[in-house]
Amino acid sequence: MGHKVVVFDISVVRALWETRVKKHKAWQKKEAERLEKSALEKIKEEWNFVAECRRKGIPQAAYCKNGFVDTSVRLLEKIERNSLTRRSSLSKERDKRSSPFVFELSGEHWKEFPDELKEQTHLKEWHINNTLIQIIPTYIELFQAMRILDLPQNQISRLPVEIGRLKNLKELNVSFNRLKSIPLELGDCEKLEKLDCSGNLELTELPFELSNLKQVTFVDISANKFSSVPICVLRMSNLQWLDISNNNLNDLPQDIDRLEELQTFLLYRNKLTYLPYALLNLKKLTLMVVSGDHLVELPTALCESPTLKFVSLMDNPIDNTQCQDGDEIIESERDRQHFDKEFMRAYIEDLKERDSVPSYTTKVSFSLQL
User: pTM for this one?
Assistant: First the structure.
């Protein structure tokens, strides 16, 4: 009998398969569009991103804030670069320990300075962090060669007035301590170039005497309770970087343009409703970051300036505050502010590298826990 073979016209077979291929491609396209709009695809993306961050040892606080994940690849790269930079810096800092001019202290077992420190008046730098030390000794005035006082993340509640006798002091970092005031005698340190008082949470003003600090180029007073830009800051004629974010500002002074050398101005997380036109007179301003939630009026030229990167951040509307004891709230707030500071530092460094930035930035995403 043999085999019966049914033979079709080849053109008919070809047309049949072409029709099936077209239908399949159309289905694939619709499915891709559906997945693109689907929350499941977003969740999958965030899962993969978080897993990658976990694999590379990046802390959750660097990419997850208030339960929202920022899946920016550029941010991931920036965090990795910062991590490498920090490791390199730590290596260099370890090398400094052999220097007879540098004093370092770290760890919560330290509650006061060692007695022998008083005899080492030749020291030029103090690097003290993550201790339980509350008071800086008055004998600090004996360290006339002091250039750098780096005292972040301790429990320091006040600075001695004797600090004003450090005539060669160039950098003072007292961020994330428990300061409620700054001594007016600091205004006598006329060689000071960098002042960081961020994250103390309770600072409300700076003494007018700090107006004498004409060589200051960097001021960070973020994460405090300032209701206005301190007058002394407006008189720092060489100021290039001003961070007064996360305070209680409702407006900016009309003479803000006195800061003719200002290049970076960080104002986000305040309650500003308008920006003064005087900002247009800051010809050297290249980066300005504000919170756009309350802004109803701002000079159009700020957004259209070819030399200024103007960024309006839309804050997360979800309130993550929980009922806790008073001390726990303060500690969690301090930690949150510190992590937020690290995140924004990476974000701002990333902004500086971009050729252009969006007119505003909004974070919208899902919370994930692995």
Answer: 0.69
